[in-house]
Amino acid sequence: MSTDPTPASAKPLADGEIRLPAAVLWDMDGTIVDTEPLWINGEYELAAQHDAVWTEEDALTLVGSDLREAAVYIKRRIGSDMEPDEIVDWLGGRVAAGLREKQDWRPGAVELITALREAGVPQALVTMSYAYIAEPVVDALGFDAVVTGDSVTHGKPHPEPYLKAARLLGVEAADCVAIEDSRTGAASANAAGCHVVAVPHAVNVPEAPRRTIVTSLTHLSVADLARLADRGPE
């Protein structure tokens, strides 16, 4: 039995057929797995150790951010003597331990990842969590490419993470759909040229060109993503 190596996104379309995305690029924290409580609880714990006040506004400000930039913010807010990289290691270690113990999947995420794999659509994980934090999720789900916060020079909202993911998959970012839960991540993916499906979780995501906001991934199908990818520039 022969296998056609031509990507689905590059094949000629029959009448009425919708082109599949060249790839789907997934954020992790808050999109695939609910790690935000792990991060936020760690932030409160670290602030308490410094006898400092940490607020919900502080926590939500950092959702989706580059970890080192978040650590610089935390260091300033709580008056810590720890270096930013030490803060990242302290928080990241707690989140990684929590993820190894249990993965709290977001509704519909695993099912959509499975459906996309069965449809032959390449998928990448694009997360600002470092590789050792993302490892339990990568091991559980498998991806065709993985971009983590410690593998890029510029984190979200810079476009570099999504551009790198597209490059690793050998596709154009403009032909991809990115799935995000934060305004920071959505801005990164849009800046790279992706059509973004935003499924807000901890924070609101504003409307923008080439961005579709949904309340849940539960009823989102491969065909739905194909229709979005087939729209072209808006």
TrEMBL record:
InterPro entries: HAD-like_sf (IPR036412), HAD-SF_hydro_IA (IPR006439), HAD_sf (IPR023214), PGP-like_dom2 (IPR023198). NCBIfam families: HAD-SF-IA-v3. This is Haloacid dehalogenase superfamily, subfamily IA, variant 3 with third motif having DD or ED. It comes from Aeromicrobium choanae.
